[in-house]
Sequence to fold (582 residues):
Amino acid sequence: MAALLSPLSPSGPAPAAAPAEKGAGSRRGTRNWPFLLIVPALLVLLAVFAYPVAQTFVSAFTTPSPGTGNFAWFFGSSANVAVLTRTFSTALWATVICLCLAYPYAYLMTVASPRARAALLLIVMLPFWTSLMVRTFAWLVLLQDTGVVNGFLGLLGLGPVSLVRTQAGVLIGMVQILMPFMVLPLYSVMSGIDRRLLTAAQSLGARPLVALLRVFVPLSLPGVAAGATMVFITSLGFYVTPALLGSPSEALISQFMYTQVSGMLMWGRGGAMAVVLFAATLLLIGLLGLATRAGRRSRAGAR
Amino acid sequence: MSARLARAALWTAGVLVAAWLVAPTLVVIPLSFTDKVSLTFPPTGWSTRWYANFFGDSAWTAALANSLLVGVLVAVVATTLGTAAAFGLSRWTNGRGAAAASVLLLAPMIVPGIILAIGIYAVFLKLGLAGTLVGFVAAHTVLAMPFVVVSVTASLRTFDERLETAAASLGAGRWATFRQVTLPLIMPGVVSGALFAFVTSFDEVVVSLFIQSPTLVTLPVQMYSSVTRETDPTLAAAATMILVLTTVLVGGGLTLAARACIEVGQSHSLIAAMRIVAS
Fold:
């Protein structure tokens, strides 16, 4: 993970050089000039990001009246809790399907020739940047009752299946859009695995598949954990795809937030759901952090 | 033999996944040239009437103009702020401060869009910024800046700092050094950051849905409301134009970024690492 973070951590030798600079005296006043370069960006972020988000969380406890009324409202109705459960189960399914599709793809990237690898990477990256709206619209056309997918199913003798306005439709659209979030962390961990370990395992008598399952897969688990967390968290807050491909009667939490705030101006309720969503996100990050640390410790112990 | 079979199976799976990632989106291209009023695929006859329809309808052309204007302004603002921040971050000797600042700089990538959208909407309503050009540029800048920071930081990493020392030893001031030595060398990262910033703004839907006004609608918002109202192939024409424009820009951005996709790919998995570190 340290290697992944390195692009943003300050350059290595710099801190060591700092004490020497302190002694220089003449430069003391200007030592913090790099910080001044960050200030404008930080100010914009504080005003248009940190403050609005904090404001939303605060409104959960203060609007319309101080207290935990908004949370009592949210958890008090079984319909609302069902929205939350549905959001989590959709995110879980999206994560599982993404993992099943992304794992062989990322593995293929690590064994392919450099040119094929660049092509495979480009295929993942381009959709990442292709308009969400365009892709969701394309799925809407393909999945409609008279669409290509149903036409194809008809050829196979499978009757028309309703895909638009169902959970299945939401999942199909979401998984495609979330794939890069799974492939990229997986690939970056897998490409760091020393493939000679597989050769070593095989030379000790393990069959290729056994070597793969017992040596490669465990070493790739940090990538699985990172990718799964990314996909899961991102799908918890997904709005456009479920709103257009899903059924209004099976709303996910983000759609529910939209109707409460934009339609009914219930700021406090929107804020309460934001708190729940964010708490779930942080909890998952925390769990992933613990799992990664435990994994690292057990690996260090094995050594 | 079985190794070859396994390899074939792996490639088949990979190609299928690749096709599934790319092919569905391409359906909008033939659809936009249909001569029918419905969105039936494949089209039975061809025409360009939906493009004529797009450019003849002021709602669509105004939305396109707004999106282009907001996108360009966001690219300028986010690239300026993001480049300065990335440069400062790489030279700041206070390790803990730099780590905290980089967490805040990348945080907009992590917080679910809907939470940010509600917050920005509330604040903008109070300040009278909802539905204004300034409001759109400010909101999109926050979302676009992380991509500039990541992209510029990646190219700063491959930059040899001794060149700056050399310039300084020859008497160049800090600004002259940056303008004449550092900036030209990190230019690919800056330009690709600007392209990603433009595309981020050009594609943004959720925050824009909240802060739109009848007088200021962006292209994705116009698409969103048309999808929920009717299914008219004009949508496919709009989608095709967005697809072509963003693909060209992102293709350019990816090629420009030093060591193209690998670097950017790693930068994105950085979001994953960020989440772990943030805990």
